[in-house]
Amino acid sequence: MKRICAVGAGFSGAVIARELAERGVPVLVVDERSHIAGNCHTERDADTGIMVHRYGPHIFHTADERVWSYVNRFTEMMPYTNRVKATVGGKVYSLPINLHTINQFFGKSMSPSEAQAFIEAQARTDIQDPQSFEEQGLRFVGDALYKAFFDGYTRKQWGVEPSKLPASILKRLPLRFNYDDNYFNHPYQGMPRDGYTAIVGKILDHEKIEVRLSCAFEDLDEEFEHVFYSGPLDRYFKYDLGRLRYRTLDFEEIRASGDFQGTAVMNYPDPGVPFTRISEHKHFAPWEAQSFEKTIAFREYSRACEPGDTPYYPIRLLDDKVLLEAYEDRAAQEKGVTFVGRLGTYQYLDMDVTIGRALDVMESFLS
Question: Is 205 a catalytic residue?
């Protein structure tokens, strides 16, 4: 019996491999990195002992009870609420924009109904059907809040004019007229006690699964019954139609004693600040944060992804969608291969969606 190959040892490849292995199907999981868990990879920093998210912060949140139950099979999820702050014009505010943010920014003490009426008066009601990120922002909160919290940050994060980005990016962010500063609306939210790499390791821990690291799919000479490919879609076709565009991230390490910034994530929307945010990783594990004498944080810079860089965010502007559709047509004709995950489908997917889709793919494949 030929094996099945899962390309990529992140959540997509691991979940697919586990579902197959539990049904007696042998699977080879390959990843060209030297570690499992992809961009979710976590490890203890040797100097501080802090669990570090090596490719930037990952907070697990979902409304999918099936996915929440699935991850809890392989880890102990600890309580964690994502509370993001932003430094704007020398002052610190809470995100997402809530009643405290509005009152502080405008120097008022409005009630929820007063704040709602105030923001509606600020909003650009002449924009009936927002198409771009910029139009959505102006319609959403008006000129002052949009310029302060969204315009500069977005330009740094995406490297393009906000008028060129789709409105859907901003539609995901809540606007609240109470003092709730939980960044997410999902009912399930937490952080794995032992980090994300430990979860993926346990998912992959099955006698029917072989994991081969520092190994590129292109270097394999084995024939497979089927391939589940979570690598870059354009790379599978040797980029012969051109390269899909991504943003990548650079991290500047900060080491200090005690507490560096007092919170896990501080955004810097001001256009004059070159980085987008600083994340301090001890605060992602509040149950142990006080036990560390030292701290480690990272300034985060966004730029265009070049060959050899780690891709993070698919850009998906008009030109990218045209090229994507051409690759998707090729992928639909490819026999014996299913394209999955963030890179394989050229979509930015949260961890819960990645797991949910992998389970869906397996349900369809095994049926």
Answer: no
> Domain locations in the chain?
4-50+63-76+193-240+315-366, 84-171
Q: Is residue 176 annotated as part of the catalytic site, yes or no? A: yes
Q: What's the CA gap between 174 and 97, in Å, rounded?
A: 7
Q: pLDDT tens digits, the chain, 367 residues: what are they? A: 799 999 999 999 999 999 999 999 999 999 999 999 999 999 999 999 999 999 999 999 999 999 999 999 999 999 999 999 999 999 999 999 999 999 999 999 999 999 999 999 999 989 989 999 999 999 999 999 999 999 999 999 999 999 988 888 887 778 999 999 999 999 999 999 999 999 999 999 999 999 999 999 999 999 999 999 999 999 999 999 999 999 999 999 999 999 999 999 999 999 999 999 999 999 999 999 999 999 999 999 999 999 999 999 998 887 788 999 999 999 999 999 999 999 999 998 999 999 999 999 999 999 9
Query: Of residues 54, 139, 245, 277, which has the active-site annotation?
Result: 277
The correct answer on CATH 3.30.70 for the domain covering 84-171 is no
Exactly one of 19, 300, 316, 352 is catalytic; name it.
300
Strand residue runs (E) in 176-267? 188-192, 209-213, 226-229, 246-257, 265-267
Is 350 known to be catalytic?
Answer: yes
Residue 300 is a catalytic residue:
yes
Domains 4-50+63-76+193-240+315-366 and 84-171 share a fold: no
Q: Does the annotation mark 54 as catalytic?
A: no
Count of Cβ atoms closer than 10 Å to residue 165 Cβ? 22
Burial of 150 (0-12, 13-18, 19+ CB in 10 A): buried
Question: Is residue 93 classed as helix, strand or coil in its secondary structure?
Answer: strand
